[in-house]
Amino acid sequence: MASVPSFSRCAVGSIIAPSRRTRKSSAPGVSRPWRTSAQETPSGYVPADAEYSAGGDWFDVFGLSGGRLALVVGDVVGHGIAAAAAMGRLRTAIRTLADLDLPPAELLTRLDRTSVHLVEADEASDAECCSIDATCVYAVYDPAARTCAVALAGHPPPAVTGPDGALTFPDLPPGTPLGYGLPPCEAAVLDLPPGGLIALCSDGLVEDRHHDVGAGMERVRGALARAGGDASLAELCAAVVGTLPKAPEDDVTPLLARAR
Questions:
Q1: DSSP per residue over 62-89, as a string?
Q2: Count of CB atoms within 10 A of residue 85's CB?
Q3: Distance between CA 119 and CA 127 in Å, rounded?
Q4: Residue 39: strand pairing partners
Q5: Cα(112)–Cα(163) distance, rounded to whole angstroms?
Q6: Mean pLDDT per segment of 10 residues, for the chain of length 260 residues?
């Protein structure tokens, strides 16, 4: 990892035997791979501005009933205190909704309504209004079924290893960004065989003003493929971040998990 200086915010470690109360989450800061009997999940955070890193990117990893594992990456538009405050509110809302054991599509639909209500409450109370304009991907891995249910709210889809071993970005219902009260999200159920990889990320990893999302996805897919199936997740994460320019235009948050 020393060859990728911007990845110094990631460290190697593990957390054993998660329960419904065991969570790992991050805004800007150091993160560690998270190992369970079902998956291992390293993650990272690369701010667009290293000197002023308050932003709206975040991730969460937490256990659900039945040995399932939830993976979340979200991105609030903008930087600074307002974006960080909106991120904190959404992250807290997701954790609360996840305790209800909602399917991914329903959780993001309720999260969208919650974000609208939060802004309305601020306006009604004459409090300083913090608008919420964000995207999110919420995935639930079921080790018994060897599947991963994924829902998007205007967010880039994850890269997933299919049953044939090929790593692709599946064509998923894109959903709409959070904060607008638009039609409900839809979910797709993907097969994730033993050894299969799922890689979630914020849009800063796959999109900038010089390249479209398709080109960014192919860059990430190529980096993962070149690293090879024998690479550790930390090495895969470093390979992906290593494809970025020295000064990315947006915050970058990758979150990788491999089924056991």
A1: EE-GGG-EEEEEEEEEEESHHHHHHHHH
A2: 16
A3: 10
A4: 259
A5: 33
A6: 27 25 38 46 45 70 92 86 83 94 96 87 64 89 94 94 85 92 90 90 81 85 84 86 71 85
